[in-house]
Amino acid sequence: MSGFTPPSLLSSPTLLFCLPFSLWPQKLHRWPQFRSQPAAGILERLNAGEIVIGDGGFVFALEKRGYVKAGPWTPEAAVTHPEAVRQLHREFLRAGANVMQAFTFYASDDKLENRGQALKITGAQVNEAACDLAREVANEGDGLVAGGVSQTPSYLSCKSEMEVKAIFKKQLDVFVKKNVDFLIAEYFEHVEEAEWAVQVLKTSGKPVAASLCIGPEGDMHGVSPAECAVRLVKAGAQIVGVNCHFDPLTCVKTVKMMKEGVEKAGLKAHYMVQPLAYHTPDCNCQGFIDLPEFPFALEPRILTRWDMHQYAREAYNAGILYIGGCCGYEPYHIRAVSEELAPERGFLPAASEKHGMWGAGLEMHTKPWVRARSRREYWENIRPASGRPKCPSLSTPESWGVTKGHSDLLQHKEATSTQEMKHVLEKQKKVKSSA
């Protein structure tokens, strides 16, 4: 058997994953090593039908490790603790990610100095350091570097289009200086702001992806996923999709709606999805930030590695080629995505050296009842218990119903005042009493 691989095994994930790792085709034991020549660009890969695996969620992962502060969620760790950022990049690369997304989420100057945060680090310093770290690790494999911009406090505070675009331009200047491979406008709740970001990023001449943090109900002003996608493509994005705020299958559903809209409009684009690693069936249009567990009690909702196999297959079957993760995604989640799509990609990630497919490594366990779990059928059908007998399976989102233009979302440099806190606590009490 080890000397012969039936052709069907190369095209059938089901048959392939039934085999022990040692009997996998030798071509799937290999993974890209240190880059010896320039990597193909993002559009060249997608145009050729290649699957591109994104990385995972840096702000949540680094917050848990003690390098990011919950609340502002800003990425100054790229300057203050580069070793932590570098290590996480390496773990995602080893797990199979093709894209090292520079840790520039919320790295705009207006966000770095919002609500009392007084960092002695500029946005330019953070963006430059983040790009350098991403490039260093990308060059250790077959990785691409993406520079990203995200929604701004200035937009929520109703600043002008010119003012908001100027913020994006400052980040873009760094990305051009550092010669990133492509650009991402990600984590936008309002398609209008995302359009402005795309228009700015397009001036660089580099490929542009645009990713909204929306679900099937559309953006926070009720613009449908289909219309959002059409507007982003017309603005100049070559890759469109969603990230964050919702669980994988909800995000895949949303991108399918985007794809249908683009095709109906007679336009062309590639598609991306980078969802949460949390189950969110009880979310409203605002997503997981409305859940009472956000952000410090989400762990019971975490997806297993086996859930990730299902997600990866659903995304690929929907015609999505750029498949990654956002908040909650750890390297083992990305490894699961890479393993599920190994037959299509032609190789396993390096991290699979220490992971038996579908629990095959459990055959080496000392306890026989654990050895009995070393099979795909067991893990595909597991229904994990939370171990919390008094906890509900679903929550009631805190639906405040405010978005851009509402006084509650006006941002400022000063720390949140006692009076402001009194106001939000009173409103929270009112919302809960009416739920």
UniProtKB/TrEMBL annotation:
<dbReference type="GO" id="GO:0047150">
    <property type="term" value="F:betaine-homocysteine S-methyltransferase activity"/>
</dbReference>
<comment type="pathway">
    <text>Amino-acid biosynthesis; L-methionine biosynthesis via de novo pathway; L-methionine from L-homocysteine (BhmT route): step 1/1.</text>
</comment>
<dbReference type="GO" id="GO:0071267">
    <property type="term" value="P:L-methionine salvage"/>
</dbReference>
<keyword id="KW-0862">Zinc</keyword>
<keyword id="KW-0489">Methyltransferase</keyword>
<feature type="binding site">
    <location>
        <position position="244"/>
    </location>
    <ligand>
        <name>Zn(2+)</name>
    </ligand>
</feature>
<feature type="domain" description="Hcy-binding">
    <location>
        <begin position="40"/>
        <end position="341"/>
    </location>
</feature>
<dbReference type="GO" id="GO:0008270">
    <property type="term" value="F:zinc ion binding"/>
</dbReference>
<dbReference type="InterPro" id="IPR003726">
    <property type="entry name" value="HCY_dom"/>
</dbReference>
<keyword id="KW-0808">Transferase</keyword>
<feature type="binding site">
    <location>
        <position position="327"/>
    </location>
    <ligand>
        <name>Zn(2+)</name>
    </ligand>
</feature>
<dbReference type="InterPro" id="IPR051524">
    <property type="entry name" value="BHMT"/>
</dbReference>
<keyword id="KW-0479">Metal-binding</keyword>
<dbReference type="GO" id="GO:0032259">
    <property type="term" value="P:methylation"/>
</dbReference>
<feature type="compositionally biased region" description="Basic and acidic residues">
    <location>
        <begin position="405"/>
        <end position="428"/>
    </location>
</feature>
<dbReference type="Pfam" id="PF02574">
    <property type="entry name" value="S-methyl_trans"/>
</dbReference>
<dbReference type="InterPro" id="IPR017226">
    <property type="entry name" value="BHMT-like"/>
</dbReference>
<protein>
    <submittedName>
        <fullName>Betaine--homocysteine S-methyltransferase 1-like</fullName>
    </submittedName>
</protein>
<dbReference type="GO" id="GO:0005829">
    <property type="term" value="C:cytosol"/>
</dbReference>
<dbReference type="InterPro" id="IPR036589">
    <property type="entry name" value="HCY_dom_sf"/>
</dbReference>
<feature type="binding site">
    <location>
        <position position="326"/>
    </location>
    <ligand>
        <name>Zn(2+)</name>
    </ligand>
</feature>
<feature type="region of interest" description="Disordered">
    <location>
        <begin position="386"/>
        <end position="435"/>
    </location>
</feature>
